[in-house]
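stuck on whats below:

***
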Amino acid sequence: MLLLYLAPLLIILFVPFDSVWLLFLLFIISGLGMAGIGMGIMHDANHGSYSKKQWVNKLMGYTINLLGANDKVWRLQHNVLHHTYTNIEEHDDDINAPFFLRFSPHAKKNFLHRFQHYYAWFFYGLSTLSWITVKDFVRYKRYFNMGLIQDRKTYTDGVLKMILWKVVYFSFALVLPMVLSDFSPWLILLAFVAMHFVTGLTITLIFQTAHVVPNADFPLPNEEGQMESERFAHQLQTTCNFAPKSAVLSWLVGGLTHQVEHHLFPNISHVHYRKIAPIVKRTAEEFGLPYHSNGSLVSAVIQHFKMLRDLGRMELQPVAADKK
């Protein structure tokens, strides 16, 4: 995946060619490599499950910085908030969407949401462009205000490191191609956007089809602020697998075809998910708990499309405190 990401950029930098189609193809291939790094390397590493050696996990976790994002922001958003508060409105940052998207029946609804199952895909493609420009800074500031970052000095150091990493990324992925290649800057910029569109669409589809689907629950705390289900049951209720029998797809997406197993055991490397899945399924059935799974990626995407459509039509669901 690292080679798939870096080799096309090196070709653009050092191999003379004049084909616009080849330029876009190389950037798009690099975008697929970006998605592969995000799902198959960085994801495990920042969960501490890529290697038994923590220095290896830390080193490979930095690969997200090579994609223009930030490892510390991602760990707070994903490991802390998403895995702790999966599908809980206003707590899980994966479903805290901008005003034109609605990922939870408990989120406020507006007239745009009626059409979101048509236009959401375009914004999925722009998601990583948002990450590498403004979203990381916005989230990092919000996490500081939430108390997830220790003190002002830690926050300031984090911002400076974030800026430095992003300067490095934009330098080799955008500026150097503009300077060293024979193509006009606007063509390089368009190809760069195409690369991120492929990355954003790929990653978002893999993660959204695991949680924003009709089978998944969107539970809320009770009046005392407690969840009714304990952690393992909660993860089974809010998470869905897809294409569980496809070894090839599992390899391509870093085992995230088995999101149920990942959410139950995030400290286990993804290479083991397919092996433990039958045990997890049998145990869930034994205790009368759900085990959600779609047969293929296509069926999972169709289910996500239906969920977006339904969320655009259904009214705001009452919060737990309103249920008497």
Residues 320-324 have pLDDT under 50 and may be disordered. The longest strand covers residues 240-242. The chain has one domain: 2-316. Strands lie at 240-242, 292-294.
